[in-house]
């Protein structure tokens, strides 16, 4: 599915979020509070937007981006090569449930809109805990639901009906953008997901609503 939506993935992100996706990624990077030269692992990196944001916002950061879709990575690589920080980002094909990195080898892990898609999220959290150094930081962006009733009703209509329609017309994929609201509906609520992060070996877990709670930013530190 991700291979086939890769050609229009970035365009649809910008259009369907009205450009807010860039701001959410920047907020995730800033919440890590990293110092210069940090080693960052961006899991489910897709077309590398979060990896690119990390190199722009953290001076001297070195980023390893991992994803299992070769088409998403191919597009990500073209963007990385065209950017200012080409040498700071390495993209590798791999699975979030079996991360190709050594124990305690990174200062931070980021995941943008990817954990919901991972078949075994508990296994991925264990793997993240393994590769993070003690005190290392975690930032996960994932979709949520607005908490204000009127906004929630409006948003549900957009997310369940209009977004899949636009997604289908632009991507030409029949089901990928219907899968999006379905997979968000199946994802645990923020408090529950925060508990799962804590259970995987993290402290100071926070679930921060962004833009009325359309998106949640989960931040934590490795114990
Ligand atoms: C919605 S995209 C997010 C891409 C990017 N992080 C962003 O912020 O736009 C989800 C990505 O997760 C990847 N993915 C899903 N399950 C995965 C897994 N088990 N291991 C590695 N990548 C995975 C998909 O290939 C896809 O590129």
Kindly give the count of domains. 1
Order of helices and strands: HHEHEHEEHEHHHEE
Structural class: alpha/beta
Which ranges are low-confidence, i.e. pLDDT below 50, for 5 or more consecutive residues? none
What percent of the residues sit in helical stretches (DSSP H or I)? 40-55%
How are the strands of the biggest sheet laid out side by side? 3-2-1-4-5-7-6
Radius of gyration: 17 Å
Number of helices: 8
CATH topology: Rossmann fold
CATH class: Alpha Beta
Span of the ends, CA to CA: 35 Å
What percent strand? 15-25%
Summary of the model, kept short:
By secondary structure, the chain is of the alpha/beta class. It is 47% helix and 23% strand. The structure holds S-adenosylmethionine (SAM).
Keywords, separated by commas or semicolons:
alpha/beta, 47% helix, Rossmann fold, 223 residues, seven-stranded mixed sheet, binds S-adenosylmethionine, single chain
Describe this structure in words.
- This protein has eight helices and seven strands; from the N terminus they run H-H-E-H-E-H-E-E-H-E-H-H-H-E-E.
- The protein has 223 residues and is of the alpha/beta class.
- It has a single domain, classed as Rossmann fold (3-Layer(aba) Sandwich).
- Strands 3-2-1-4-5-7-6 form a seven-stranded mixed beta sheet, sandwiched between helices.
- The mean pLDDT is 97.
- The structure holds S-adenosylmethionine (SAM).
- S-adenosylmethionine (SAM) is lined by residues 2, 44-46, 49-50, 67-69, 72, 95-97, 112-114, 117-118.
